[in-house]
Target: ribonuclease T1
Amino acid sequence: MHSTKILVLLSASAASVLAVAVPPSDQNLQARAATVTCKPKTNLSTEKFVVNVDHAKAEAKKAGFTDGKSGYPHLFQNHDGIKWGVHNCDDKKNPLQEYPVYWQGYKKQTVWNKEVKVKEQESTPLRVVYANKKGSIIYCGVMTHSKVEKNNRGLDYFQKCD
Model:
């Protein structure tokens, strides 16, 4: 009986020690940016299209709703019926905008300049899509043209990047 009490006390002590929360060490954590991968149905380029979501959001914010000399940003009519999974983006009341973005590791150009004509910039098949909710930018996602040529020019319909 006495040994049973000791065993119960030891078990309770061990459980309370194990239940103590240990604060996470910031030294062992690595910050990872969320990314999306774009996989065009036909990719004739040698590129792998991985886009940093924070970068895409920043580009949308920078672009705003007024087009520049490049013609971007402009309305995205979503004729392909892409479902974004974001309420304000799937609600037809909020107009969608599209704006070119580049992928991680692309060295020739890292950001689209809306004040420079398209033919004077590097091609990108990728677009950040965002909604205009009463003047606020709501990030919807990133999409790619379904066919990408060797020079990274996009053709055909759009498809959502995951």
